[in-house]
Amino acid sequence: MADSRGDTRPTHTDTETSGRASETPAEGLYDASHYDDAESAARRESGRDYEEGRFGRRVQRYAQVGTSMAGVVTQMAGKRFLGRELDSLKHSGELRQALGGIKGPLMKAAQILATIPEALPKEYAQELQQLQSNAPAMGWPFVKRRMTSELGPGWRKQFQEFSHEAVAAASLGQVHRAVDQQGRQLACKLQYPDMQSTVEADLTQLRWVLSIYRRYDNAIDTSEIYQELSARLREETDYDRERRNMALYRDMLNEESGVQVPEPVPELSSKRLLSMTWVEGARLMDFIRDHADQAQRDRVAYNMFRAWYVPFYYYGVIHGDPHLGNYTVRPEDQSINLMDFGCIRVFSPTFVKGVIDLYHALQRNDDALAREAYTCWGFSDLNDDVLETLNMWARYLYGPLLEDRVQPIQKGDSIKEGAELVNKVHRELKRLGGVRPPREFVLMDRAAIGLGSVFMHLKAEVNWHRLFQELIQDFDVDRLAERQAMALDRVGLERPV
């Protein structure tokens, strides 16, 4: 979900009856009832958190999504236990439609799972990849309650303007445009009600579905995948953590002229409200429609590559959600605005070293180094057959980085080749007894596949090998560890275990 962006639609602001944007009202003219909710204010003053882990809300969530999830289980169980073939495409399409109208983490988890090869049946993966993070926004009564609960009675006095309608809405919250008393243009992200309870309910349902699928197909053990999704989704409900993530990215990318990161506004932020400076830009598909120049498109691809991989190879940090709504393009210089910092993963320095070691292993056909890389990531029981099967997939993913030439991220028929390779790898892993992918791979796969999709939309033609070499040529695992520790300490984030 985008936190702050340029938007050509009219912005709705708090107005007087004349329709003119109101200035800060004088004390005698301030109508608190228009902005504040007495119940929310009382809760805030009491110090009680009514949204934290509410059992009743979890029960409601079970009922809300139970029918949709039951459809998944019916299909899987029907194939596995009853020996009958259900209409996979029909049922998976119905699931996508059901999840598309539900706010909350289940939709985001489904999107992420859809990008992990063979984590779900292919019919579900194909349908869930079409989910859009743009659910209908909640109305003004919710906005008043949320702002009062987070900033207190009289919150409206802290803004010159605050839009009645959201400019963006997604799975966990919605964004309103505002102007603070210093005149700064802001984006304010408000978390939907009871998201913590919703996360716990959705994770319970997700664990149920994955356990059924594991009985149906043992090629991929999803237990570590589930643990990773659980940790990241719980973090995404903490907007105070996201504020620190944003500060971290401003620190890590401060020398990248092609990338802009909004500035968080701590005094107007809380655990469920995140305010930041507004950044102007065009949506990617709008940029592509209006800019046919290949050099400009390639420049956008270069900036996207740097935005995602400078933090990873210099600091061991990845932005795990390159969704099209999470960044915009500045047409005047093809720089990008990077936004939404809820889905951030910090890796141990040795994991990053393993990524680079595997690259060199594939370059040199060095099986011993490849085995060492997989082992340091957490793979176990790597006999020669399993190693070769994993390398088949790795060669496909690393392919554009291995060839020193200008080329698109995918060749003409590489999507078909990739699908055929996934099927081949899956068959081999199943024959060999399956593997348990380390949890770190969830967001790495998400980022790689998501960025690949962006580069395909741009039709970018870049020497990916040289871009990669720029990042890793002076790699030193100890220096990365030092840089990472200092950056995390500066913004108050914990170091990886």
TrEMBL record:
Residue spans of biased composition, Basic and acidic residues class: 1-17, 33-52
GO molecular function: ATP binding; protein kinase activity
Organism from which the protein derives: Rhodovibrio salinarum
Domain Protein kinase: 161-497
Family: Belongs to the protein kinase superfamily. ADCK protein kinase family.
Positions of the UniProt region annotated as Disordered: 1-52
UniProt entry tagged with the keyword ATP-binding: yes
Name by which UniProt lists this protein: ABC transporter ATP-binding protein
Keyword set, alphabetical order: ATP-binding, Nucleotide-binding, Transferase
Pfam families: ABC1
Lineage: Bacteria, Pseudomonadati, Pseudomonadota, Alphaproteobacteria, Rhodospirillales
